[in-house]
Amino acid sequence: MLIRYLSQIGRYFLMLKEIFNKQTKWPVMKNLILKEIDDLIIDSLGIVCFISFFIGGVVAIQTALNLTNPLIPKYLIGFATRQSVILEFAPTFISVIMAGKMGSYITSSIGTMRVTEQIDALEVMGVNSLNYLVFPKIIALLMYPFVIGISMFLGIFGGWLASAYGGFSTSQDFIQGAQMEFIPFHITYAFIKTLIFAMLLATIPSFHGYYMKGGALEVGKASTISFVWTSVCIILFNYILTQLLLG
Question: Any idea which UniProt keywords this protein has (predicted)?
Answer without folding.
Answer: Membrane, Transmembrane, Transmembrane helix
